[in-house]
TrEMBL record:
Species of provenance: Phytohabitans maris
SUPFAM superfamilies: Arabinanase/levansucrase/invertase (SSF75005)
The protein's name: Glycosyl hydrolase family 32 N-terminal domain-containing protein
Length: 319
């Protein structure tokens, strides 16, 4: 399926407001990988900072939770360093209310035991009070029959919690050597579609496998679903990252997909990405989308001309 998704126009990523800037204006220094929770008029942001391989505290070295009253100016309330998890890298986190008076934080990081990406969960009464020591496993390479799982995006519909994850599809001949770098996503030994797990308590999940596969062109290596928005007239629109090979693993571009039931997704962007930046690699990735007061709020990580990555927000009228 290839057509324009009428309720959602494309946009100029350069027109967005800068929400967070990288610590250095150099290639390999990134801030982004955002997850945004809009809850009771308040915004909560999870984000990651990365440094180049070989730099001090390299790769995904810090993740944080920040709060805001306007969705633009955020203040950190909690953070974690990768060494606290004994991990070589962390990536996307996802924050949700826990159904009571507290919050759940789903985190993805490289397991120090087997160098494979995994997902854990933390609970706290307040996002400022998460304790890494209380983390519990949610999904792993072993529990899903994959080579790794990361980048959770979690939505709740009625009693069901849906967790969409990027996973490394197991292929014949993939052995431990492919995990030597601690980043199976960057070695070209697997592909990376989106899988789904569901839960009735937000803690114990059943794995359903692939729900959004890779394409045959610009998105033939990765199709990572980053956010899902229910539409007023029914169904869901999703925003996914695509790449053609592991050489574009850190410079993905954004595509659009739709679903009627969250289990079956159809890509609408097989011919070309939905949006690119027009500078450097053109990467616009980790789009986290929300419909708020008649506007699309789109948070996204974008590659700058100096090859650093920054986090931006653009607001456009909803058709």
């Amino acid at each position: 399926m290839n057509r324009v998704y009428a309720p959602l126009p494309t946009f100029d990523p350069m027109a967005g407001d800068v929400i967070l800037s990288p610590e250095k204006h150099e290639a390999g220094y990134w801030v982004g990988c955002a997850g945004v929770l809009y809850d009771g008029g308040r915004f909560w942001l999870t984000y990651r900072q990365r440094r180049p391989r070989g730099a001090q505290a390299e790769r995904g070295w810090r993740c944080a939770v920040a709060a805001s009253d306007d969705g633009v100016d955020f203040t950190d309330v909690w953070s974690v360093h990768k060494d606290e998890l004994r991990s070589s890298s962390m990536e996307r986190f996802c924050l949700l209310p826990d159904g009571g008076s507290g919050f759940r934080l789903y985190l993805s990081y490289v397991d120090p035991v087997d160098n494979r990406w995994r997902i854990d969960v933390l609970n706290a009464a307040d996002p400022a009070k998460f304790d890494i020591a209380t983390g519990r496993p949610v999904l792993s390479a072993a529990s899903t029959g994959t080579e790794g799982v990361k980048d959770p995006y979690v939505v709740q519909v009625g009693p069901v919690t849906y967790m969409f994850v990027s996973y490394a599809a197991a292929l014949d001949g993939v052995g431990a050597a492919a995990h030597a770098t601690g980043d199976i996503y960057n070695v070209g030994a697997t592909t990376h579609p989106t899988g789904l797990a569901t839960s009735l308590d937000g803690e114990s999940f059943d794995w359903h496998g692939q729900v959004l596969g890779v394409g045959e062109g610009w998105n033939r290596y990765q199709a990572r679903l980053n956010s899902v928005v229910p539409m007023p007239n029914g169904g869901y629109v999703g925003f996914y990252d695509g790449s053609a090979s592991h050489e574009e693993n850190y410079e993905e571009r954004c595509g659009i997909a739709v679903s009627a039931d969250l289990f079956t997704w159809h890509r609408l962007s097989d011919d070309r990405p939905w949006v690119t930046s027009g500078q450097a690699s053109g990467s616009v990735r980790y789009v986290d989308a929300h419909l708020i007061d008649g506007q699309w709020w789109l948070y996204y990580e974008m590659t700058r001309a100096d090859l650093a990555h920054e986090l931006r927000l653009i607001r456009i009228p909803a058709a």
